Amino acid sequence: MAKPSRRVTPPDESEALAAQIVEMMMSYGQAQFGDAVKAYWVYAGDLCPGCLKRPIDAMKYKGKEGLAINSFIYRECGVLIGYLLCSQCAKGIYEATPRPDDELHQNIERNLIAAYHRYLASLDA
Questions:
Q1: Which residues contact 18 (CB under 8 A, 6 or more apart)?
Q2: Could you tell me which of 28, 84, 90, 100 has the fewest CB atoms within 10 Å of its CB?
Q3: Closest CA to 73 of 118, 31, 120, 26
Q4: Bridging pattern class, strands 39-42 and 79-84
Q5: Which of these, 106, 85, 103, 81, lies nearest to 94 by C-alpha position?
Q6: CA–CA distances in Å: residue 32 to residues 25, 60, 80, 88, 96
Q7: What pLDDT, in 10s, does the model give residues 78-112?
Q8: Beta-bridge mates of residue 81
Q9: What is the pLDDT of residue 25?
Q10: What pLDDT score does 93 carry?
């Protein structure tokens, strides 16, 4: 028998909440970095931008299930990119010593930048 999936398919209310969270991150980003943050975009891919192997799913944190909502500033374009991670990549980040130069963070940024450029190219089509 197949193992049940922990993949998250958020209802409309969750999508609205996620949008509010990203807007809040945008406000904080603008407060901290000023005009360096001009816009925001949310990665909506099915696969985790950290590993590009697993679907985005819930993780256990302090005994409860939750989603790892993150963002980074793509400075070249002045865009705050919001994204979710799979539970394994999220666990790797939350349990490790924070280092933005580690391989996982580099993969996340590289994959999100590529996804953002694919998004921009789709607008021109």
A1: 10, 42, 69, 82
A2: 100
A3: 26
A4: parallel
A5: 85
A6: 10, 30, 12, 30, 25
A7: 999 989 999 999 988 877 766 666 889 899 999 99
A8: 41, 72
A9: 87
A10: 83
- The pair of three-digit structure tokens given for residue 109, joined into one six-digit string: 């940024």
Q: What span, in angstroms and rounded, lies between the C-alpha atoms of 72 and 15? A: 19
Residue with tokens 């943050």: 37
Bridge pairing between strands 64-66 and 59-61: antiparallel
**Reported pTM:** 0.78
Those residues of the chain that have pLDDT short of 50 are 1-11
CA distances for 80 relative to 110, 112, 118, 123, 125, angstroms: 14, 11, 16, 18, 23
Q: What is the DSSP code string of the chain?
A: -PPPP-B----HHHHHHHHHHHHHHHHHHHHHHGGG--EEEE---SB-TTTSSSB-B-EEETTEEE--EEEEEETTTTEEEEEE--HHHHHHHHHSPP-TTSHHHHHHHHHHHHHHHHHHHHHH-
Q: Which of 49-76 are b and which e, b meaning 16 or more Cβ less than 10 Å from the residue's Cβ? A: bbbeebebbbbeeeeeeebbbbbbbbee
